[in-house]
Amino acid sequence: MGVETEERLAYLEKLVDELNEVVAGQSKEIARLTQRVAMLMEREAAREAEGGGGVIIGDARPPHY
To answer: How far apart are the first and last CA of the chain?
Structure first.
């Protein structure tokens, strides 16, 4: 292999390693966010089951009007 080819290969290997680190970090972040969304969905389902959702949608008036 020529020097230019070896330099290019070294650059590409470094780039692949850096991208791998980014993907691994994103995977961890996605897992963490997925867990948080699941927790929030469970919390909201429990709140709805108790009848205390309290979310006003659109032009709906609160019950005290």
So the answer is: 81
